[in-house]
Design a protein that fits this description.
21% of the residues lie in helices and 21% in strands. By secondary structure, the chain is α/β, with parallel strands linked by helices. Helix 2 packs parallel to helix 3. It is elongated, with a radius of gyration of 17 Å.
Length: 164
């Protein structure tokens, strides 16, 4: 299990679900080399070889890390499963997500519902007063309450300014 070092909402190196399940995980950042870490003869754990690699917050992977993971899956034979967002609060792709979508052998979407009842495919950031934020840094960790999932119609109707 890996999660992004930048995500400390549940504590650094912790993966937590909204259902209350939690698990300790190794952390990755932009300097992590998954190929070196997982491909050598030393790979494995005290309980045996690596059966699967799960990556949470995969939108924070670099394009090079996505390539490393793709190579591991296809040459070493380690199944790699990544969970993350496709786009940020401005509708822009995360670089890691764009590369994952390009290289993935299989993509499964976890469906969420917009407040209007449609399928949610976009993310909106809100400030402390619940007002929509339309510009700023792509990454702002602040808990699930800072982000809301919306359908594309609500994303654009609420005054989003699409960038080219």
């Amino acid at each position: 299990l890996f999660t992004a070092a930048i995500d400390d909402r549940s504590g650094v190196g912790r993966i937590a679900s909204r259902l209350g399940l939690e698990r300790q995980a190794a952390v990755f950042d932009a300097t992590t080399d998954f190929w070196v870490l997982l491909s050598g003869p030393q790979r494995g754990t005290a309980s045996g070889p690596i059966a699967c690699v799960l990556i949470d917050e995969s939108q924070f992977l670099t394009p090079a890390q996505v390539r490393q993971l793709h190579r591991l899956a296809n040459t070493v034979g380690i199944p790699i499963i990544c969970f993350g967002l496709r786009s940020d609060f401005m509708g822009q792709p995360f670089p890691g997500s764009a590369h994952l979508l390009t290289l993935a052998d299989d993509i499964e979407e976890i469906k969420t519902i917009c407040a209007c009842g449609r399928k949610a495919t976009m993310n909106v950031r809100v400030d402390d007063q619940g007002q929509r934020v339309r510009e700023g840094e792509q990454v702002l960790i602040g808990g699930n309450s800072r982000y809301q999932q919306t359908c594309a119609r609500c994303f654009y109707e609420s005054g989003a300014t699409p960038s080219a």
